[in-house]
């Protein structure tokens, strides 16, 4: 009887541990079980016969409001959750901060639609209009930089400043990356695991890996265990196609708002990098050169460069980045 009780105890302990592991390692593709640091609201969107929801945070100034607003646009493999330190720094200086999860990302709907930077810009403008914000500084990181540029091109009167943090799309990927159909990219996205996600983040995003970066992997890798992961993978493939087929690089010359680039000089990001040979990879994605070249294309643009930093300065060197950002604002 004693051994039966012990066996039952360990069986229950194992079951409880398994449940905890599942709760930790398996995430909804709309991140319901990921807590953002500020309250999340939802903006309704109707498109292509579908009712969708765009998640966003509207964070009030912590101290005396300065009457200004900053919008933070995330990269392709992220959502609003990775802006926490930036939000804190901005609100402490009196800024209102709007942090959307674009449709297809973060806590927002994972819809099967035609993804378009023009459409995303329109949705973000509609969100700002609804919130009564007539003008804002737009900070875009990575893919968010492409979206921020499109927003500034479409709505210059609503863009106080265009702030680009290691934006992708500084090259026309169509000119050197082999074309991959959305269906083929979908097959590639389906192969993602938490382990492959961490390996990619280590090799692509940071110069030195730190334990706190594991939280980014927990979120991005956690969705790969969801029963709905195929939907997530399909949307990821669709947005890959959007990036490939909708460059902004040829329109930088048309930007007519004050622009500042924040560039981690060790960044070597190339969308579709795995489709190139090592020799081909060495010819592209060199942000220590691309940053300066892009600043030269945008009338009156300024550039702030960070030594020894990779693709995500606001996470890798948050203090240095925040000082530069606040100084630029």
From TrEMBL:
- Bilayer-crossing residues are none
Q: Recall the GO molecular function terms of this protein's record.
A: monoacylglycerol lipase activity
Signal peptide stretch: 1-21
* Gene3D superfamilies noted in UniProt: alpha/beta hydrolase
Which Pfam families does the record associate with it?
Abhydrolase_1
A GO BP entry:
acylglycerol catabolic process
Q: Which residues form the AB hydrolase-1 domain?
A: 69-316
> Which keywords label this protein?
Signal
GO CC annotations?
Answer: membrane
The record's listing under PANTHER family reads: HYDROLASE, PUTATIVE (AFU_ORTHOLOGUE AFUA_2G14860)-RELATED, MONOACYLGLYCEROL LIPASE
What is the name attached to this protein's record? Pimeloyl-ACP methyl ester carboxylesterase
Species: Pedobacter steynii
Instruction: State the organism's lineage.
Output: Bacteria, Pseudomonadati, Bacteroidota, Sphingobacteriia, Sphingobacteriales
């Amino acid at each position: 009887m004693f051994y039966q009780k012990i066996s039952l105890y360990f069986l229950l302990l194992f079951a409880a541990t398994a449940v905890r592991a599942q709760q930790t390692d398996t995430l909804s593709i709309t991140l319901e079980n990921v807590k953002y640091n500020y309250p999340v609201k939802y903006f309704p969107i109707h498109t292509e016969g579908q009712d969708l929801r765009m998640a966003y945070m509207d964070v009030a100034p912590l101290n005396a409001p300065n009457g200004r607003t900053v919008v933070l646009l995330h990269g392709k493999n992220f959502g609003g959750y990775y802006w926490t330190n930036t939000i804190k720094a901005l609100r402490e200086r009196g800024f209102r901060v709007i942090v959307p999860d674009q449709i297809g990302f973060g806590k927002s709907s994972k819809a099967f639609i035609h993804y378009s930077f023009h459409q995303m810009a329109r949705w973000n403008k509609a969100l700002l209009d609804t919130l009564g914000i007539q003008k804002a500084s737009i900070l875009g990181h990575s893919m968010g930089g492409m979206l921020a540029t499109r927003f500034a091109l479409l709505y210059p009167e609503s863009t106080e400043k265009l702030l680009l943090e290691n934006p992708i799309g500084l090259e026309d990927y169509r000119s050197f990356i082999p074309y991959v159909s959305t269906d083929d990219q979908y097959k590639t996205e389906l192969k993602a695991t938490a382990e492959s996600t961490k390996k990619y983040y280590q090799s692509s995003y940071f110069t030195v890996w730190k334990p706190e970066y594991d939280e980014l992997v927990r979120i991005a890798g956690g969705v790969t265990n969801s029963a709905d992961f195929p939907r997530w993978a399909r949307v990821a493939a669709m947005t890959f196609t959007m990036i490939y087929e909708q460059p902004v690089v040829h329109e930088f010359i048309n930007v007519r708002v004050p622009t500042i680039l924040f560039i981690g000089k060790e960044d070597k990001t190339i969308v579709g990098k795995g489709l190139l040979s090592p020799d081909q990879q060495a010819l592209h994605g060199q942000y220590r050169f691309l940053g300066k070249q892009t600043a030269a294309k945008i009338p009156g643009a300024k550039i702030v460069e960070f030594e020894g930093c990779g693709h995500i300065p606001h996470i890798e060197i948050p203090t240095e980045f925040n000082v530069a950002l606040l100084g630029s604002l």
